[in-house]
Amino acid sequence: MVEKKYKFISQPRHPSENRRFVAGRGNFVADIDRPNMLHVAPLSSHYPAAIINNIDISEAMMMDGVIDVITGAEIGAAIQPLMNGLDTPKVQRFPLAVNRVRYAGEWVCAVVAESRAIAEDALEKIIIDATPQPFVLDAEEALLPSSPPVHPEHGSNILLDRKFVWGTVGEDFVNAEHNLSFSVIWGRNSTVPIETFGVVAEWNGWDNILDVWASVQMPKYSDQIARCLNLPGNAVRVHYDVDVGGSYGVKRGIKHATLIGYIARKLGRPIRFIEDRLENMRAGDAHGPERKFNVEVAFESDGNVRSMRMRALDNAGAYAGRAPFQLGKPISAIVGPYQINSVSYHAISVTSNKTVQEAVRGFGQAPTNYAIETAMDRVASFLKMDRLALRQRNLIRSDQFPYLIPSGSTYDSGDYHAVIDKVLAAADYKTLLVKRDHLRDEGMMAGIGIAACLEPSGGNSSFEPLLNEANKTSTWMESCQINVDGLGHLTARIHTTSSGQGHETLVSTVLGEVLEIDPSNIRITRPNSLESLPGNSPVGSRMAIMLGGAAARSAEKLKAKLIKIAAHSLGIDAEKLTYAGGNVLAPDGRKHTWQDAVELAHRQFHNLPEGMDPGLAAFDIMQVPTGNALPVDGKVHMYPCYSFEFHLVLLAFDPVIGRPEIHSYTVGHDCGTVINPAIVSGMTYGGIAHGIGAALLEEFAYDPNGQLMTQSFLDYLMPSSHEVPPIQIVKHCTPSPHTVFGQKGSGESGYLGSPAAISSAINDAVSALDIRFEKLPIRMSAISDAIANKSA
Amino acid sequence: MNLNLTGTESIQTNPSRLWESVIDPAVLQRSIPGCVSMDELAPGEYTITLELKVAAVGGNFEGSVKLSEMNPPNSCLINVSGNGTLGVGKGTARVTITANEDDTARITYEADGEVSGLVAGVGQRVLMGVAKHLVRQFFTALKKEFEAN
């Protein structure tokens, strides 16, 4: 396909949000200050598991400035449990522990006071009488019938245990010349935004409405708050004009919002709760997947990989959260970018006495990509084949699209070989190999890492009905509304919060492109949930496709109206008119301008075509492209678009110190038509940095007593500019046939492949020593210890 | 997280006087760092309130102390458990008193403790140092008891 030439799309334009952020004029939840506001501090459990016998709040209640202390027993009796997408009704979750605590740090009660400082002081006066209970931390142990159940009412720790077989797995394994097996572990990490979760809620009893301002990125947030608090849906008003200071999935805070909403309603005063760092790390319920993979692959001597068996065991933590579904999304790209004929997949999610998981960038795809890419490296090593050649042999070819994979999804488009060739040229692969060998000659451990991965995008939620048959959801719509005012200026409404994705830039660029007007003059508003059309927020790498799609379709509707008005006014058939730069042109040279249409639509009803409503407004509620069916026989088509990325890394470390230093990092990225290049590059740079953290540094580690050992940035190590090297991004564009401009998703780019690539590089570096690192993160201590053990 | 402390101190007194003082609540209250109160529930059984502030680790703790396996004036077992805003802890210490050749008393302790809660995670890097520091403070105070006499 030839790339279309756009006036604003794909052009180097500054994201319009930059101005207010650079000037420090963002509107974050901590900027929300309501009159007469009260503050909350939660009391955390010391134990990973305990029965709560008694909570003595009497002394705390006597303190000046303390208004109330809410216990789990109180809130458990007053509200509905938080939504659990699985069919596990006895795994109930409330904002505060009810009768039993299930992980160290879990909130047991909450003090409401005139200031946060008073609330924190009052925590010291609360006496909890609790009896410690047996607990379980390891997922394999949690699977055993003898393990202490985190939810005794549920009977076991198993939340989800599903086996899928797609295609002739048994046969392929029998017929293939070789097979091998291995296991790898993705350590518990997350996205850890600098801004913790925060929420302000205010109840207006005269209007019967709960106002909520929150640092949130979550579908159906207001619905869930209303359901939990037994309120009508239209009695919860979530304000979307709050800037969110980083999220990538984790800013869901539904337990926080129901707690604060409940207190606001009970006390009739505005309530603010903003987590401190320790609250966020221990009990913000925002950890990411912790997953063990057992993988078997069947392959031929020539390198063709025929079949794969994968068992993925995920440690969900104390409550279901979104963890089980994060085993579901990867089904949509379970073979990665490769032609693998058949797959079996055993997805298991277990509870443990650890912090709850939340959605994290890629929704389980990054761990799965790490397992698939490790399989490719292992097969190459077994066959003594070049890792790159092995991948090139197995990759889906550009002439094979649309490509149906065994689990039921159809990949839209791509040219994986072309992207890889570009990367090899840009990184000068041959020289890179020489550099690696030169580093080795100097006594360094040096390795080259490669990873080829997909980013399923355009967020549908088909994994929910796939994993829970009671769920019949087949739509995951997004919407946009536009209006031209009486002076002729365009305003668009988007119906979600933004956590740095640049939605305002996205929508103004798309509207400007379709309507051929300057995006800089388009106003974007983010109203509240009651003034919004249905939508599902920026999850699943979907907004370029879905919000961009809905904006483009709204603009097309408006453009059609402008042409109709002009046709009537000029007395010419609409088909003979052309639209250019906001004006409508007749073949005879007459011009019906944008302002002419504004004048007629806003003031001269008598000059509008018969049957046409006044005004210049349009909206669009868009269904996910290609998303139209529920799963059948354990198969479903999930995502409309599949972006591709190819990582090529050279790193080296001193064998005694073991601290990897990245010498060269090149990534090839094809996300179809790019709407705003700066935003997409920013996503990719950030995603790679995030992946470097997952590969080398970040882990929520627990001691044997169930205590979280990494709960501040002193111990939970984040990549800094010291660890993140300059990154060369090589762009390629294979448009998607399913989207308005050929765009695909890019919100998870970089993160989906960099952990696999870095693991590949480190394992290449130590291959001569016969060492294998099978768990992420690969900390420098693990590297130096492994090498020291080999030398000893 | 688990804490293990062992050590030996020599005190300018004889074993039986040392024994008397380490089971004397008044002496203990004066010697235990941050001890706000210590009340005897039964012989050898006390409730204790501590207010500790060491570096980044600080807070109030309510606890109990129980002496058992009493073998005067030679040895005993001390069980300690505490509960506070920053965490919970429990531990046991085996204390042995012997006579030195120079007519002083030697006290040897072997303690095993387990700490949970916020202090375990946040304080992990400093906790061992803090524990040693507190023990040192205790013995410094205890030695002063005998110097004063």
Verbal overview:
The complex is a heterodimer of chains A (792) and B (149). Chain A is of the alpha+beta class and 792 residues long. Chain A has three domains: 18-25 and 477-622, 2-Layer Sandwich (Aldehyde Oxidoreductase, domain 4); 32-133 and 197-274, Aldehyde oxidase/xanthine dehydrogenase, a/b hammerhead (Aldehyde Oxidoreductase, domain 3, Alpha-Beta Complex), CATH 3.90.1170; 291-462 and 629-791, Aldehyde oxidase/xanthine dehydrogenase, molybdopterin binding domain (Aldehyde Oxidoreductase, domain 4). Helix content of chain A is 28%, strand content 23%. A seven-stranded mixed beta sheet of chain A has the order 3-5-1-12-9-10-11, with helices on both faces. A six-stranded mixed beta sheet of chain A has the order 7-15-14-13-8-29, sandwiched between helices. Chain A has a four-stranded mixed beta sheet with strand order 18-26-27-28, sandwiched between helices. Chain A is globular. Chain B is an alpha+beta fold. Chain B is globular and about 45 Å long. The relative contact order of chain B is 0.24.
Distance from N terminus to C terminus of chain B (CA atoms, Å) equals 39 Å
Query: Spans of chain B with pLDDT under 50 lasting ≥5 residues?
Result: none
CATH superfamily of the largest domain in chain A: Aldehyde oxidase/xanthine dehydrogenase, molybdopterin binding domain
**What oligomeric assembly is this protein in?**
heterodimer
Give the count of helical stretches of chain B: 4
Please write the CATH class name of chain B: Alpha Beta
Count interface residues per chain for the largest interface. Answer: A-B, 21 and 17 residues
Largest sheet of chain A: 7 strands, mixed
Question: How many distinct domains of chain A?
Answer: 3
Lateral arrangement of strands in the main beta sheet of chain A: 3-5-1-12-9-10-11
Topology:
The complex is a heterodimer of chains A (792) and B (149).
Chain A: H1 18-22, E1 38-44, E2 50-56, H2 58-62, E3 66-71, H3 72-78, E4 100-101, E5 107-113, H4 116-123, E6 127-132, H5 139-143, E7 158-166, H6 169-175, E8 178-186, E9 198-204, E10 209-214, H7 221-228, E11 236-239, H8 254-267, E12 271-274, H9 277-283, E13 291-299, E14 305-317, E15 342-351, H10 365-383, H11 387-394, E16 403-404, E17 410-411, H12 416-427, H13 429-441, E18 445-457, H14 463-467, E19 478-484, E20 490-494, H15 503-515, E21 523-525, H16 543-570, E22 578-580, E23 583-585, E24 591-592, H17 594-603, E25 616-622, E26 641-653, E27 661-670, H18 677-697, E28 728-732, H19 754-765, E29 775-776, H20 780-791
Helix pairs in contact in A: 7-8, 10-19, 12-13, 15-16, 18-19
Chain B: E1 2-11, H1 15-22, H2 25-31, E2 35-42, E3 45-54, E4 57-71, E5 75-84, E6 87-99, E7 105-116, H3 118-122, H4 124-148
Antiparallel strand pairs in B: 1-7, 2-3, 3-4, 4-5, 5-6, 6-7
